[in-house]
Amino acid sequence: MNITTNQIRTMFLSFFKKKDHKIIPSSSLIPNNDPSLLFTNAGMNQFKEIFLGNNKPKFSKVVTIQKCLRTGGKYNDLDNIGYSDNHHTFFEMLGNFSFGDYFKKEAISYAWELLTSIQWFNLNKNRLWVTVYYKDQETYQIWINIIGLNPERVIYVGNKKNSNSLSDNFWSMGENGPCGPSTEIFYDPTENFLQHSGEYFKNNQDTQIEIWNIVFMEYNRTLDGELIPLPNKSVDTGMGLERISRILQNKKSNYEIDIFDQLIKSIFQFNKNIYSNKKKSIYIIADHIRSSAFLIAENIFPSNEGRGYVLRRIIRRALRHAHTSGMNKLFFFKLIPTLIEVMGEESNLIKNNIKKVQEVLKQEEIQFNYTIHRGIKLLEDQIKKLKGNILHGKIIFKLYDTFGFPVDLTADFCKEQNLQIDSIGFMKEMNKQKKQTKIANQFAKQYDPVLTIKNHSIFKGYNTYETTSIIKQIFINGKTTNQLNCGESGIIILDNTPFYPESGGQIGDIGEINNKQNIFKVENTKKYGIGIIHFGKILSGKLSVNQEIQAKINIKYRKNIQNNHSATHLLHSALRNIFGNNTIQKGSLITNLSLRFDFSCNEKITNEKIHKIEYIVNEYIIQNSIINTTIDTFNNAQKTGAIALFNEKYNDIVRIVSINDYSIELCGGTHTNQTGSIGFFKIINEKSIGSGIKRIEAVTGNKAILFIHNKETKLNHIMNILNTNEDNISKKIHVLTNTIHKLKNNIDIFIKRELIEITKQLLKKVIHINNINLLIENINISNSNLLRNVIDIIQKKLHSAIIIITTIIEKKIYFIIKISKNLTNDIQANYIAKKIINNIGGKGGGKSHLSEGGGGTKVELLSITLNNIQSWIKKKFELL
Q1: How far is Cα 777 from Cα 115, in angstroms, rounded to an integer?
Q2: Residue 620: which CATH number?
Q3: Is 471 within a domain?
Q4: CA-based angle 600:601:604, to the nearest 5?
Q5: What is the DSSP string of 719-737?
Q6: Cα–chain-centroid distance for residue 816?
Q7: DSSP state of 121
Q8: In this structure, what DSSP letter does residue 142 have?
Q9: CATH number, domain at 806?
Q10: How many structural domains is the chain composed of?
């Protein structure tokens, strides 16, 4: 059967609409007032209170196509994705429901008719198997006596061991709630299906595709396992859209159906170097982009708990598989337009929130790349050294603790390699960590994991910009060496250094390490375990281990960073002043050019509030307050009210940065001595980056002044164009806007008159063939978008019509084809579109009743092409 997934959706709804079912839209992926569920995992979730008898249904028979997510709890398909052809995290559940109306006989009859009738899905009956709950004799008899199935094709399924009513054919939404016996329909995709017996089905059920689960809701299971009869017997059915699409499209996997086919092509388009043997990973990426996008569109954002944790895990799993498949560029967020296209109207929520969805995915991909690239490299190295098939708990802990690599990704990676993980050993290391004093190496996860640091680096950059130091270690490409020569890039570790290592949101210092004419340009500085590593390149001469050198930072670069860091503390204080002390920092980035601050806030930040924030921060700056730093115990610091940041790990001894009485924070970063050095503070952008999380970007000093100057320059340019001054610019723009609006209305009136005249002339050229109206014409219009308006007007005047309208604009041909739906069994618009494109060039497409395209440049062939199509249609319908 040549049918699209979108058409299958439509057919399913149409079938049950004919059976007097009310079509109900999908509910949210986030269950409404149901604490027992993390996500909507079945079509019946939104009707739970009806099944329980707590709510009265508005309709006794309904049909839905429910968006579902199964990543945890009773229904956790996450680990099966990529390894199974049938499972998805996000999927669409086709379902029909009866609330005290019809029951077993009708539900089974409806399912069989839809699946096997030639008017509908037309499946081969000999490929279908049925299972029933072993105590449900009524259902068994319906299949045998009413539907007429051979008894061998109806299989009894009992309870699982040591359980009561816990069976594959006794369905429940969760550990408690509405439940009842079910009957399931399976499809046999094998070639020799006619030879299979009931015994074969029982022994080879994994080769069969479960299509439809029909649940007869009779009970409510209490928390202690008691089954209480429900007030009304009801029906709840579920059929996976992706599975039935696979069958109807004659594919070997759900991931080969039209929806996934386009997503996978898009993945390959963005990643030309994908390894050919990574089919499972490609499937995982294609699956996970759907669940990620729909969750973000419903305002779930990556985090370390609850639904946000599940989302983050899904995204990271996709990115991990992208990495191991040879994809090294940012691409995940770029799949969203393709997803919107293939999902059609079902993706409207994503389409309406596309910027938010793409931004969240992009940021998560950037952040996780720091972890995933390094963590996987170390994991692969450890696996190569492995003796046996168990990864030791110490290795798993090191990946997690030192390099920030999630345990679930380690487990997932090992599963692919048929390895087991030492979970007990990992927990022992976790418990040991809590009892021991750890070296602060929380930032090491971002860097090359193969470095072995032997020497502790002392940071002296709080009080000096230059030190006399000794080179303790040198690395080139992760390997230790004794010397760096001119032109070589590498890493240098010193016994003491003025270079601040990137941490706490503050970027690392740059500068020089030199010994007379031997110069090493430091391009970045980072923390690595007990060491501070200086990345850079030898500009002249050479440097060696144990050599005495001068280490000097770029002072201007550092001072700009310090100003921005101190301004960040002032900004934090101002935000707490305005929005309350519950305002929590969620992240920051402090560079020499600007500062970025993320914080919790559920209020809308208006321009008035932005101005108030700027006013408070600049008031702090004008006071030129001294910025004090002290060292104390963590407990004492907390007693003083010092703010500890949400994602930092603190030692017993901490550094406290105080600015008068309005800012006291625990901070290891560098700061200016007095607030006046900051000069001027200006917010340049404010936006929401998550549910209840805002981001402010700002500049200080000369950068802030430059920002104001650029604004003034743009304003002056606009005033010159409008020939007005600053006092009158708003009035002038208002007048221009009204004028444009009036002109647009006049143009619309003119266009409507033009369209009416065009359609009048076109209607005179309609040809009649066996009660069918045929119109094929090229018209002269100014805008290709007007073709749709023309064709819509004409179709309203005609019934049973085939309409093909073309136009030529700037030597390019545009066309639109519309066919009455009662004719699409005999002729299809998309087929005609292909004929046109094949002759004149360009591109286009569409559906059987509506297709359009453009860009063709073979103008000289247009007339011949249209005449040939007209002759072909005439012959086709004259013979009917």
Answers
A1: 43
A2: 3.30.980.10
A3: yes
A4: 150
A5: HHHHT--TTTHHHHHHHHH
A6: 34
A7: T
A8: I
A9: 3.10.310.40
A10: 5
**Cα distance between residue 248 and residue 427, in whole Å:** 48
Q: Are residues 204 and 106 in the same domain?
A: yes
The 3-state DSSP class for residue 869 equals helix
Q: In this structure, are residues 602 and 649 in contact, taking their beta carbons and an 8 Å threshold?
A: no
CATH of the domain at 169: 3.30.930.10
- State the Cα–Cα distance between residues 655 and 244, nearest whole angstrom: 62
Q: Which residue has the higher pLDDT, 641 or 78?
A: 641
**Residue 544: which CATH number?**
2.40.30.130
User: Residue 261 is encoded by which pair of tokens?
Assistant: 């086919």
Q: State whether 665 and 679 are in the same domain.
A: yes
Residue 152 phi, psi dihedral angles, 5° rounding: -70, -20
Statement to judge: residues 286 and 241 lie in one domain: no
- Whether 703 shows a pLDDT value over 70: the answer reads yes
What SS3 state is found at 657? strand
Quick check: is 9 in a domain?
yes
606, 697: one domain: yes
Euclidean distance between CA atoms 46 and 99, whole angstroms: 13
831/847 Cα distance (integer angstroms): 9
For residues 361 and 372, membership in a common domain is answered with yes
Domain boundary among 673, 708, 743: 708
Q: Are residues 506 and 547 in the same domain?
A: yes
Instruction: Report the predicted TM-score, pTM, of the whole model to 2 decimal places.
Output: 0.49
Alpha-carbon distance 191 to 510, whole Å?
A: 67
Neighbour-count burial of 578, counting CB atoms closer than 10 A to its CB (0-12 exposed, 13-18 middle, 19+ buried): middle
The DSSP 8-state label assigned to residue 586 in this structure reads E
Q: Where are the beta strands (DSSP E) in 166-272?
A: 170-172, 177-187, 209-221, 227-240
Question: What is the C-alpha separation between 126 and 780, in angstroms, rounded?
Answer: 57
Question: With 0-12 CB in 10 A as exposed, 13-18 as middle and 19+ as buried, what is 114?
Answer: buried
In the listed set 227, 256, 285, which residue is the last one of a domain according to the structure? 256
153 and 217 belong to one structural domain? yes
**Position 649 pLDDT exceeds 60:** no
Helices assigned H by DSSP within 151-233: 198-203
- The rounded distance, in Å, linking the Cα atoms of 107 and 331 is 45
| 285/412 Cα distance (integer angstroms) | 14
Nearest-10 Cα torsion for 825, 829, 833, 834: -20
Q: In this predicted model, what pLDDT tens digit does every residue of 650-666 receive, in sequence order?
A: 667 888 999 998 899 99
pLDDT at 794: 87
CA distance 683 to 617: 10
Residues 548 and 608 in one domain: no
With beta carbons less than 8 A apart as the criterion, state whether 132 and 156 touch: yes
Residue 833 lies in a domain: yes
CA proximity to 569, closest of 525, 629, 653: 629
**What is the spatial distance between Cα 169 and Cα 311, in angstroms, rounded to a whole number?**
31
Rounded to whole angstroms, the Cα distance separating 257 from 1 reads 13
The contacts of residue 173 (CB under 8 Å, 6+ apart) are 37, 41, 42, 44, 45, 48, 179
**490 — phi, psi (to 5°)?**
-175, -165
Where in the sequence is the domain holding 304, given as residue range(s)?
258-385
Per DSSP, what are the bridge partners of residue 187? Answer: 128, 209
Q: Which residue has the higher pLDDT, 531 or 647?
A: 531
C-alpha to C-alpha distances, 785 to 409, 743, 814, 815, 853, nearest whole angstrom: 49, 19, 9, 10, 11
Residue 761 forms part of a structural domain? yes
Q: How far, CA to CA in Å, does 474 sit from each of 467, 502, 527, 684?
A: 18, 19, 15, 41
> What CA–CA distance (Å, rounded) separates 313 from 89?
12
Phi, then psi, of 877 in degrees rounded to 5: -90, -20
257-298: pLDDT as tens digits: 999 999 988 888 887 767 656 778 888 999 999 999 999 988
Tens digits of per-residue pLDDT, 741-791?
Answer: 999 888 888 888 888 888 888 898 898 888 889 999 998 887 777 888 888
R_g of the chain computed on alpha carbons: 34
Answer whether 773's CB lies under 8 Å from 765's CB.
Answer: no
